[in-house]
Amino acid sequence: MMAGDVVHIDKKSFEFGDAVAAMGGIDVSCCYQCGKCASGCPVAYEMDLTPTQLVHAIQLGLKDLVYNSKTMWLCAACQTCSTRCPQDVDIAEVLNTIKIIMQRDKKTPQVPDVLEFNKRFVENLKWFGRLYELGMIAMLKLSTRKFTQDMALGMKMLKKRKFNLYPEFRGSRVVRKIFRRVKHQEKA
């Protein structure tokens, strides 16, 4: 979509904003496009749409534009946008909600490695009860098939003992119990 393009909006388009509000509990219609979220965002320079633009697209019901954006996948979840918002719109949660809706709708993310990283991170927590970095990176490399990417950095970190060679299992039972409880609640 380019500046000056005509956008036809029907009543059905606004259902997207309602779906985001229903799932995430955030009313994006409160946003009046002041731009404070985008001006404070530390990764806005990498995004194709600023958080302000993405929220506006949600307000207009431009589902395809939102789904084809990489903004929510690049979000660092630092909460800067949410704390700067004069309308108390939790923009970081809106971006997270969009990711959940996309996964539910089986849409392919524009930055698929981020979703893969999240999956491996959660899987690692389920197994060990805490993050075992070396194991998580191994699982990520196996799933993405990018075996040599970042290898030089990984070797430097290993030499500086930034990775534990062996996992710790402290608290793993408690964490597994939490995951079971969440799974049970999701089914209900």
How would you characterize this protein structure?
It is built from eleven helices and no strands. By secondary structure, it is an all-alpha fold. The radius of gyration is 19 Å and the shape is globular. The model has no long low-confidence stretch (mean pLDDT 87).
Outline the secondary-structure elements.
Blueprint lengths: L14 H10 L11 H5 L10 H10 L2 H5 L3 H4 L5 H5 L6 H14 L7 H17 L4 H12 L6 H9 L12 H16 L1
Helix pairs in contact: 1-7, 8-9, 8-11
Query: What is the helix tally?
Result: 11
Fraction in helix: 55-70%
Q: Please state the structural category.
A: mainly alpha
Q: Low-confidence runs (pLDDT<50, min 5 residues)?
A: none
Features:
188 residues; mainly alpha; 11 helices; 0% strand
At a glance:
With 188 residues, this protein is mostly helical. The protein is built from eleven helices and no strands. The chain has helices at residues 15-24, 36-40, 51-60, 63-67, 71-74, 80-84, 91-104, 112-128, 133-144, 151-159, 172-187.
